[in-house]
Design a protein that fits this description.
Helix 3 runs antiparallel to helix 4 and helix 4 packs antiparallel against helix 5. Strand 5 and strand 6 form a beta hairpin. The chain is an alpha+beta fold and 160 residues long. The chain has five helices and eight strands, in the order E-E-H-E-E-H-E-E-E-H-H-E-H. The chain is 54% helix and 20% strand. The strands form three sheets. Strands 2-1-3-4 form a four-stranded antiparallel sheet.
Length: 160
């Protein structure tokens, strides 16, 4: 699978996946450079290609004329989603499960838009799964309670 690369309006390539990974690891290419492969509708940042992300260097920042690499950080929302998801299936099914779902979707959105500056998509997905399980358990508990109350109400009405 070959990649075409674009930076500052200049296109180059095609390059093999291994060559692009090597150039990313040396800093010759940046995660914000755009890539294209046959069959794609549009050019995308290299950081959005799953097969390249693992070897992409951290985002490049400039501070006072000094160039440095900034490591990617784990999304706090993804961590919060996972924690709320765990709470939702262990202790408190109502509020934590809703928060796990909200935080999980917000984290995944911000991770996608961060161009490689944020990581933690797996944490967010785990939080979402646990949050949805918590919501399901809550709905199930409400349904069982409703059926029990309805049954008791019918039995009480028939006994009079």
């Amino acid at each position: 699978m070959e990649f075409h690369i674009a930076r500052d309006g200049q296109q180059s390539g095609p390059f093999s996946q291994e060559e692009v990974r090597r150039r990313l690891s040396t800093g010759e290419l940046q995660p914000t450079d755009r890539g294209w492969q046959t069959g794609m509708a549009e050019w995308m940042p290299l950081s959005t290609f799953p097969m390249l992300v693992a070897t992409a260097p951290p985002m490049l920042t400039t501070s006072g004329g000094v160039t440095m690499y900034q490591p990617a950080t784990t999304s706090g929302m993804a961590v919060a989603s996972l924690v709320m998801g765990i709470l939702s299936v262990t202790f408190f099914p109502f509020l934590p499960s809703i928060l796990a779902v909200i935080f999980g979707h917000a984290a995944r959105s911000s991770i996608r838009q961060s161009q490689g500056r944020l990581v933690g998509d797996g944490l967010a997905v785990a939080g979402l799964v646990l949050g949805y399980i918590g919501v399901g358990l809550l709905v199930l508990a409400i349904a069982i309670a409703t059926v029990m109350l309805f049954t008791v109400g019918i039995a009480a009405a028939h006994s009079k």
